[in-house]
Amino acid sequence: MDSIIVTGNGPLNGTIPIAGAKNACLTLMPATLLSDEPLTLTNAPRLSDIKTMSELLRSLGAEVTSMQDGQVLAMSSHTIATTKADYEIVRKMRASNLVLGPLLAREHEAVVSLPGGCAIGARPMDIHITALEALGAEIELKDGYLHAKAPGGLKGATHELRFASVGATENVVMAATLAKGTTVLKNAAREPEIVDLVHCLRKMGAQIEGEGTSTITIQGVDRLHGATHPVVTDRIELGTYMLAPAICGGEVELLGGRIDLLEAFCEKLDAAGISVEETEKGLKVARKNGRVKAVDVVTEPFPGFPTDLQAQMMALMCTAEGTAVLEEKIFENRFMHAPELMRMGASIEVQGGTATVHGVERLKGAPVMATDLRASISLILAGLAAEGETIVNRVYHLDRGYERVEEKLGALGAKIERVKS
Ligand code: EPZ
């Protein structure tokens, strides 16, 4: 397993290109199952999760061709060979469950392995199941697989999610595009990745309104045609790299960055003393003056502060002036980066879903363990400003969601290298 070695090396300056969004691409790809015509995605990120989704779609009989160094994905599911999503692939990535809605819509059946828990939580699928049953699906759990069928096809319905689940919203929206009649989905998630999915489905001929709000209305159609669609900018990669100059000092321009994707996050950066300026190429970020100020954070569904930026924000708060309270309200176990940051000298108390961070002057490099995708990058951010060398182990987590980290941060003057093992 590879490791990454980071050595504190002062302020960072330069530009970072922001890639297409992993969490948009992972829901756009299964949309190919909804049509027998080709769907091409451009601005796709080059990540191991995208490779895993490609493998899953191929196992179902779709053709997926990666071109232009992985930035273009040409897909076509002319025929579906099987409706079974195998555990061996699904266990690697929870987002595999996003083939459930499209398979039900297109083939009126699906057998999808339950993804199983992961480091950050149990991550059940009850919200997906209840919603798809409202559309007429019959779903039962047998030997760790969801066996779903919809004899005669899905039927439009009005349904309210008990929680604004991102994945459940995506599964229902995709399933409802080919259902008979109208679906009104209430308490829908509002994430930009869902808006991007709807933009793509509309290009394919779907009739959908209300994306980005809590009520999405889908008028079922008989079939969808092919399309070409650019993947929206990755707001989580964007927010992550905005924190690099915040933690180290210096000034960095993030190409393709958009404030509208991260308003709640940018408000917190402003309160912490970080300047964010819109340029014609993206966003320019710098530390205004002196030490970063501690700010409190509560993670919420969009448009609130993103849970996927909580670990990275904690890294910034470790050397802030004052005490910051971070509340994680989306996942039940998403503070595994805290003990690793404490190995670097951070002062953090974790009580259930609340972490209290007492800022210290400076962290000290140490060997640390990556436990999940966002925890990995928060340790790298901490290492960028720490005194001495930080070795982040198990960086396969990192490669799931961040393309070419060493290249992007190295271009800013960071001392960072990957050690193959
Ligand atoms: C998506 O996961 C993202 N993944 C996650 O990003 C992100 O953290 C999450 O949304 C929240 O924003 C992708 O888009 C591929 P949820 P998803 O359904 O859809 C509970 C990353 O780092 N829940 O909104 O799985 C669930 O356990 C990843 O890129 C149920 O209880 O998130 C969690 O506590 C991590 N029952 C909460 O809801 C269900 O049926 C939010 O889950 C579904 C979810």
Automatic annotation (TrEMBL):
Pathway: Cell wall biogenesis; peptidoglycan biosynthesis. Its EC number is 2.5.1.7. It comes from the Bacteria. One of its GO terms (molecular function) is UDP-N-acetylglucosamine 1-carboxyvinyltransferase activity. Keywords: Cell cycle, Cell division, Cell shape, Cell wall biogenesis/degradation, Cytoplasm, Peptidoglycan synthesis, Pyruvate, Transferase. It catalyses: phosphoenolpyruvate + UDP-N-acetyl-alpha-D-glucosamine = UDP-N-acetyl-3-O-(1-carboxyvinyl)-alpha-D-glucosamine + phosphate. It is found in: Cytoplasm. Residues 7-409 form the Enolpyruvate transferase domain. The gene is murA. It comes from Thalassovita autumnalis. InterPro entries: Enolpyruvate_Tfrase_dom, Enolpyruvate_Tfrase_sf, MurA_subfamily, RNA3'P_cycl/enolpyr_Trfase_a/b, UDP_GlcNAc_COvinyl_MurA. Phosphoenolpyruvate binds at residues 22-23. It is an enzyme of class 2 (transferase). Cell wall formation. Adds enolpyruvyl to UDP-N-acetylglucosamine. The modification 2-(S-cysteinyl)pyruvic acid O-phosphothioketal is found at residue 118. One of its GO terms (cellular component) is cytoplasm. One of its GO terms (biological process) is cell division. The active site is at residue 118. Pfam families: EPSP_synthase. The keyword Cell wall biogenesis/degradation applies. CDD domains: UdpNAET. This is UDP-N-acetylglucosamine 1-carboxyvinyltransferase. UDP-N-acetyl-alpha-D-glucosamine binds at residues 94, 308, 330. Belongs to the EPSP synthase family. MurA subfamily.
